[in-house]
Amino acid sequence: MKKHEWFYSFKAGFQGLRRHPLLTAAAVTTLSLMLFLLGAFTAISMNANHLSAIAAQQPPIEITMLVSAQY
Fold first, then answer.
1. Rounded to an integer, what is the distance from CA 47 to the centroid of its chain?
2. CB neighbours of 17 closer than 8 A, spacing ≥ 6?
3. Alpha-carbon gap, residue 67 to 7, rounded angstroms
């Protein structure tokens, strides 16, 4: 693209943003929520990996049960 084509594209884009402020707010809100959800999922995933690494280092727990228990 030539220099004037870039200028025209940016000019038209910013004019559209000024003409439709509600659509601009909706787009910004959507992107913000998406980034928040992505960050929350990443944090939960990293926490789960950390907890599984800690649990893997613990000795196993052995549970026994008496089968012939009377009521």
1. 14
2. 24
3. 81
Residue with tokens 């990293």: 46
- Characterize 30-66 residue by residue with b for buried, 16 or more Cβ atoms within 10 angstroms of its Cβ, and e for exposed: eeeeeeeeeeeeeeeeeeeeeeeeeeeeeeeeeeeee
CA 71 to CA 65: how far, in whole Å?
A: 14
Tens digit of each residue's pLDDT, the chain (71 residues): 788 999 999 999 999 999 999 999 999 999 999 999 999 999 999 998 888 888 778 777 777 777 776 76
List, in sequence order, the alpha helices (H) in 1-71: 3-19, 21-57
Q: How many residues does the chain have?
A: 71
